[in-house]
């Protein structure tokens, strides 16, 4: 079977194109713009920047051109841009989105025609770009085609100069079929240093060695390419058996408000893991274990566990890890349900690990939660 005949070949190509363009936008925002006046605080107190809105406008415009009937579940909406406070951000978002959509054609397999470019450039008025952002308002659900978009996952990481990811997934009947993730700050070679937000240390990082894109289609494997070169290399998780579990390394959020560092540490202890956890913002954590930099991603809820994870925070990362040989479930070991709406309301927490050890990790999770008196989460 050639690539163009493979299932979801078109969705794959367009998703890569959209993520590349949005990643170019976010990188240029980061290089040139980011200052306090380029971000807003949302009603849930989380930050949102020119980069988040711009990347959502770019991806949604491209999806609207190629798949006009497909609904999109996207994180952002344009309401904050329509206020007086949001006016200057709105202007920057529109300028950056136009630049990104008109920019030189990106290296993207099967899609270099002038016609495609022309179509995408047609709808670039402010009104149309804001409407493109709001195409992300879909409620989600278990039936039919839809896209899930996190234009910048890890906005806090983006703001501090650490890791972030542009994440786009294609979902059919509640099952993720295609996942593409752009990680502009992740080193192409795992051995190279990655920016972490520490200004002094990050000054030593060679920027030409950063910028990866991950691509996975269900049943077709997981691949890494770079932002500038379309050559794809297959990636897979490190093999890990029960007897080697104590040598594993695990990653977790930088933000202790997003995942319980204390519970994670106890789980590691129960598994005999001595390595210090690797803290990283965004779905770059999924990418990192998928290519074998680390082995386990733990995301245990904080407090009473009432927070509902969002589908765009996990859809592309989950497929990447599954296609690289891993298993991703909630803390009870149950599959994540992407068909329940905008959130993973049927699930609590996330545990991602190699198939051969996933069951053991889940046992340790149960034990740690029982010890903490949080057995009701199980
Ligand atoms: N209380 C909470 N528990 C878990 N995740 C949360 C959370 N509050 C916010 N988040 C999510 O955590 C994401 C970042 O994940 P991480 O901590 O792995 O970097 C955020 O994505 P955005 O940055 O796209 O808003 C946000 O959706
Ligand atoms: Mg956010
Ligand atoms: Mg996110
Ligand atoms: Mg986001």
Can you characterise this structure?
The protein has helices spanning 9-32, 50-66, 87-102, 114-121, 126-134, 155-160, 199-202, 261-270, 284-290, 315-323, 355-371, and strands spanning 39-41, 47-49, 72-74, 145-153, 165-172, 175-187, 210-217, 222-226, 233-234, 250-252, 278-279, 296-299, 326-329, 350-354. With 378 residues, it is an alpha+beta fold. A hairpin with a 6-residue loop joins strand 8 and strand 9. One magnesium ion (MG) binds next to strand 4.
Give a topology summary.
Layout: H1 9-32, E1 39-41, E2 47-49, H2 50-66, E3 72-74, H3 87-102, H4 114-121, H5 126-134, E4 145-153, H6 155-160, E5 165-172, E6 175-187, H7 199-202, E7 210-217, E8 222-226, E9 233-234, E10 250-252, H8 261-270, E11 278-279, H9 284-290, E12 296-299, H10 315-323, E13 326-329, E14 350-354, H11 355-371
Parallel strand pairs: 3-4, 10-11, 10-12
Antiparallel strand pairs: 1-2, 4-5, 5-6, 6-7, 7-8, 8-9, 12-14, 13-14
Helix pairs in contact: 1-2, 1-3, 2-3, 2-5, 8-11, 9-10
Strand runs, count: 14
Shape: globular
Q: What number of structural domains do the residues give?
A: 2
Report the CATH C-level class of the largest domain: Alpha Beta
Helicity, in percent?
A: 25-40%
Q: Give me the number of helical elements.
A: 11
Question: What are the bound molecules?
Answer: adenosine-3'-5'-diphosphate, magnesium ion
Low-confidence runs (pLDDT<50, min 5 residues)? none
The spatial strand order of the largest sheet comes to 3-4-5-6-7-8-9
- CATH topology-level name of the largest domain: Fructose-1,6-Bisphosphatase, Chain A, domain 1
Mean pLDDT: 92
CATH architecture of the largest domain: 2-Layer Sandwich
Taken as a percent bin, the fraction of beta residues is 15-25%
Give the termini separation.
44 Å
How can the largest sheet be summarized? Answer: 7 strands, mixed
Query: What's the SSE pattern?
Result: HEEHEHHHEHEEHEEEEHEHEHEEH
Radius of gyration: 20 Å
| Name of the CATH superfamily of the largest domain | Fructose-1,6-Bisphosphatase, subunit A, domain 1
Class computed from helices, strands and strand pairing: alpha+beta
Catalytic activity: adenosine 3',5'-bisphosphate + H2O = AMP + phosphate; adenosine 2',5'-bisphosphate + H2O = AMP + phosphate; 3'-phosphoadenylyl sulfate + H2O = adenosine 5'-phosphosulfate + phosphate
Cofactor: Mg(2+)
InterPro entries: DPNP, Inositol_monoP_metal-BS, Inositol_monoP_superfamily, Inositol_monophosphatase-like, Inositol_monophosphatase_CS
Keywords: Hydrolase, Magnesium, Metal-binding
């Amino acid at each position: 079977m050639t690539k163009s005949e493979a299932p979801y070949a078109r969705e794959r190509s367009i998703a890569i194109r959209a993520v590349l363009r949005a990643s170019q936008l976010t990188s240029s925002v980061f290089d040139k713009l980011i200052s306090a006046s380029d971000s807003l605080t949302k009603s849930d107190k989380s930050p949102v920047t020119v980069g988040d809105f711009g990347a959502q406008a770019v991806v949604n415009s491209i999806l609207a051109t190629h798949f006009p009937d497909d609904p999109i579940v996207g994180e952002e909406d344009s309401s904050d841009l329509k206020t007086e406070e949001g006016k200057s951000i709105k202007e920057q978002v529109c300028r950056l989105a136009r630049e990104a959509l008109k920019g030189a054609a990106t290296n993207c397999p099967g899609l270099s025609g002038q016609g495609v470019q022309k179509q995408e450039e047609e709808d670039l008025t402010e009104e149309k770009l804001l409407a493109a952002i709001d195409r992300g308002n879909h409620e989600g659900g278990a039936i039919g085609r839809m896209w899930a978009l996190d234009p910048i996952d890890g906005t806090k990481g983006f703001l501090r100069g650490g890791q972030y990811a542009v994440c786009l997934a294609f979902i059919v009947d509640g099952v993720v079929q295609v996942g593409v993730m752009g990680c502009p700050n992740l080193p192409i070679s795992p051995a190279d240093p990655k920016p972490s937000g520490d200004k002094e240390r990050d000054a030593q990082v060679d920027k030409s060695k950063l910028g990866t894109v991950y691509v996975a289609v269900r049943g077709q494997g997981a691949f890494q390419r770079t932002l500038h070169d379309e050559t794809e290399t297959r990636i897979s998780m490190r093999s890990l058996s029960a007897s080697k579990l104590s040598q594993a390394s695990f990653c977790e959020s930088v933000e202790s408000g997003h995942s319980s560092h204390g519970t994670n540490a106890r789980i590691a202890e129960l598994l005999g893991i001595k390595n210090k956890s690797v803290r990283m913002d965004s779905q770059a954590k999924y990418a990192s274990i998928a290519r074998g930099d680390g082995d386990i991603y733990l995301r245990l809820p904080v407090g009473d566990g009432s927070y509902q994870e969002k589908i765009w925070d996990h859809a592309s990362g989950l497929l990447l890890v599954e296609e690289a040989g891993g298993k991703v479930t909630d803390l009870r070991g149950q599959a994540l349900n992407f068909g329940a709406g905008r959130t993973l309301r049927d699930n609590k927490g996330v545990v991602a690990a190699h198939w051969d050890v996933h069951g053991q990790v889940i046992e340790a999770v149960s034990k740690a939660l029982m010890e903490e008196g949080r057995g009701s989460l199980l």
